[in-house]
Design a protein that fits this description.
homotetramer, about 325 residues, alpha/beta, seven-stranded mixed sheet, 11 helices, globular
């Protein structure tokens, strides 16, 4: 019978499975739009600050986004430090770019996002996230389909960061989680370049997206590595996969990492330092076992179908 | 506009803050009771199996409880391996006892829980959790108030495990998170004995319970250490504090840990091995900083007040 | 941003459409079972007392059930006062029988319900509803399928009351809302006998069940009449259809009705008297128009498909 | 276990009591603002069309607003047909004005609303509600506090319509439900003028607002009458009170009402005609009894405190 003094009358639901959802009370709706590609909301919440929500999937929020963006970006850049050219696929909030631009060595960052309305709204309403990244002359924002862009890019990226929304059916991103697409990204990297992919939840009850992405990348690249982080608003622990044709160091020395960060970045990291980085590579036993067991590969013919519905599916259903 | 095909008409809400809650769809209600101390539910859920819920606070569920119970128990026992006598405060599900009894060296386990109805219902409905622990002759279950029990116990525990529900106001456990109580536990340990305390969430927006518990324990014991784990159904990352008057090894050697587990336990661990254990000790930078900054201490005069309401508070309010 | 101090952590959802649901906080779960036919809950709620919920559909609750059971039963009995023999189809709570037994003229009441577990649980947990009706020697409870029972009944009912749960797909009752079934009930009535059918919501956005039931009954019986009531926990206004081969008085004289009730019943009505009864027959203009427009008829080949899922459908889906 | 295919990820909650709430899935957010006086949303919902929501209280929606606005306006105007001068207090959506302007006899309508942002947003986004009323030269919109306006108005209104949001604590309207305020309205009426007040829900569990308003008006005016209607999105049945110093006809003759409407209005009514109007005056027995029993009167010293929180209360709490 215990209950709670809820402070809101407007709630964003994130459906995790058909049997659980996470509800966030909205204290201010900063932007609501149905764009060409997806439903977009920028909401202010009581517990976690401002958040970007696309097609009902919580993307990131000011209250804990650093727990996602730092371990998405820094492990990859530390593997190839000091990197010069970095390509970001997705990343509309500008926070991924912010993390890349923290490196003094970086000369050029290109960020490809399909939805101009999302990029513009984030730039306007989420300064806490991009922290001026959009004004950095090293950053070029390209509004385009990542699949098409990779066909015409100039093949010399040190690091490519795949920061795409989950591959829900009919959403704009599921093709970008397939073997065909990863082969294109491989062709766009420098010889020892690194690709990092946001790779979904790794709760005991739903680790398959991570495992199959790892398996898919392992079928193309000589070396892969899995990392995890904990972003409270994502409910489940979250994961990334690194992939490269050159070796990856998965037991980084904390002291040396701290030295590198001090030398090459302008600082400001909140979560990642040497110790925390090492922790990201140390996976629990059951997850390592699941990754090893997995052998399926995502292809365009057999792409991932993550739980959730995009706007086109929802429209179709309501006909 | 996207939505979800929800499969339930009965939902357990866990209120995280006044601005967010996590809802679990019930597919079967195995037991519902209002006991002398709290509201108790044992529910079957679609996503996470069977769960125990007390006063609206999700205690643990079969789908991910190993991510809580293994890192609660194994780090402490590994610090003092091979331990012989272990005291558990709380732990009604029997899963904490199960983890302790995995050790062949353990001769005696006493588990103190205040609520017989909870212990009996877990024994009946949650065999996946206790896995027969209640039938192990080394385990003695005592229905009592932990505070009173410690006054009369025989002062030679190698390890004491505080596995209590969160210290919500008017709930049955908040006094057991105070300096006075921890002094009693210290007096009940062998010289180099270890106390481990479940220490609440460590999301960036709510780390204070952990930090103050660490501070409180640090004011009594010579050595303390923080660990984290990630239990999806707890939403936030979760934490423990180890405390002892003898040194604690916070950078365990994975290979040696694996050897110890092989030698002294009958196996069966799902999350914890050497690598995973080391990962539990490697905290993110912002959490280490917050722990260092904290100096407040919980006392009976100034106990913790965690978000939530116990059954007595709720009754009082509804008068 | 305004919110509310919610007093419960366990909620029953009634899904009205895919875009709205009504949530009731449970303060005590008196009975939960998955019977042979349906999911059954008897819950105690803070706002509306005790309620019976079947397959996620709120049946009735102590807080407002009189607004359903009185206008279900009394208009039909007043049309044929004083009636002697009454057949109830469904009505597990015993409240429909209670209303019938209020009449001194009634000699025999048979109540057919398919689910013994529901009838037994209501008898035990909902004395406020049946008020001892199950102990009245005039009442005979038959656990059977209403369709089969009507084949063998003795054809002399003055009034037949169809008090069935909504005809959701795969639920136990949808066949009992068809022309074939209504023909059987007609054959079981005395010459001028009256059938009354609970006929679903009549909100402007979902009046079709009522209209088609009225149309279906109109295709069989010489006279039909629609009535409405308002039961807050049903969200939408609710409706009944009366059907008979003898004329129906749809503008009852309030004074004469009060006299009849005084003479033939033992009193105790809370909602219905002469004035209120007349009000039940006076429908809003748009509803009268919708009933007139409707010409479709429900048959076994084309039965109603009301929003909602029965337990069998849900199981099938989750395979 | 049955559930539902919900089509939205953004939900408006209307808290009815601390133990129940009604949730509407938003398919489009047309306007969200925190005005000087209240939180305002204009949402598009899947089930009920477009809705205006103020401080978390559902005001009205295109799907069923006619069930509120017609019985709010037409009974009062029919009591004093043909009326010439009508004052509306509140009524931001413009639908109350629409109903008044349906009368050819009406020469002047003044509508007082405190919140210009609400009026402007409704005019822009809810043309289905106002249907051009704002462009009718007979309508004058005054942005002002109703209490102050009544001090300076010219005392010759045939009908005054109080269409104010519920008197929640700290909301903008609770003072306008007191004896002092009603005395001002009385002084502003012509001799036999009629005041009609929206008077809240009349569910069996929450009829006190209606009863006390009726009692309050009865302490000032010679004649009062209660009416009810059924607006599905309000969950509970809804009520109005008419008050006048001249007699009120509470058993209108349906045929004569239909004649009057034909003669004096330009038609277009959906719910109200003679039959439906008579039905509005025929209250259920328990409600009539409750009104008769009530003797308390709302005053400025003891105003109504309806369930809910205004924006100022919520802000204060979150400090």
């Amino acid at each position: 019978m215990p209950g709670s003094d809820l402070k809101s009358d407007l709630w964003v639901y994130e459906y995790v499975t058909p049997w659980d959802y996470y509800a966030h009370g909205v204290t201010n709706m900063l932007r609501y739009a149905r764009t060409e590609f997806q439903e977009m909301m920028i909401v202010e919440t009581g517990a976690y600050g401002k958040a970007l929500v696309l097609d009902g999937k919580w993307q990131s929020c000011t209250g804990d986004e650093f727990l996602y963006h730092e371990p998405l970006v820094q492990p990859a850049l530390l593997q190839r430090a000091p990197a010069r050219n970095v390509l970001i696929l997705g990343g509309g909030e500008g926070a991924t770019a912010r993390e890349v631009l923290r490196w003094n060595s970086v000369k050029r960052v290109v960020m490809i996002d399909i939805d101009r309305q999302v990029v513009d709204a984030c730039r306007e309403h989420l300064p806490e996230m991009h922290q001026g990244a959009f004004d950095d002359p090293r950053l070029e924002v390209v509004i385009a389909d990542a699949l098409e862009y990779l066909d015409q890019t100039d093949h010399d990226w040190d690091v490519i960061i795949s920061d795409l929304s989950d591959p829900i059916e009919e959403g704009p991103s599921f093709k970008l989680f397939t073997r065909e697409y990863f082969e294109k990204t491989r062709a766009s990297l420098t010889g020892g370049g690194v690709l990092v992919v946001q790779a979904g939840p790794v709760a005991p009850v739903e680790m398959h997206l991570h495992c199959r992405l790892a398996s898919t990348l392992h079928s193309i690249f000589k070396h892969t590595a899995s990392l995890t982080t904990y972003v409270p608003t994502y409910v489940s622990p979250w994961s990334f996969v690194l992939a490269s044709d050159a070796p990856l160091d998965t037991t980084p020395n904390p002291v040396r990492i701290d030295d590198t960060l001090r030398e090459h970045t302008r600082g400001g990291l909140r979560m990642i330092d040497g110790q925390a980085l090492l922790g990201c590579y140390l996976l629990p036993k059951h997850l390592r076992a699941a990754i090893e067991r997995e052998s399926e590969v995502y292809t365009l013919a057999k792409p991932p179908k993550f739980f959730g519905h995009g706007i086109s599916a929802a429209s179709a259903e309501s006909d």
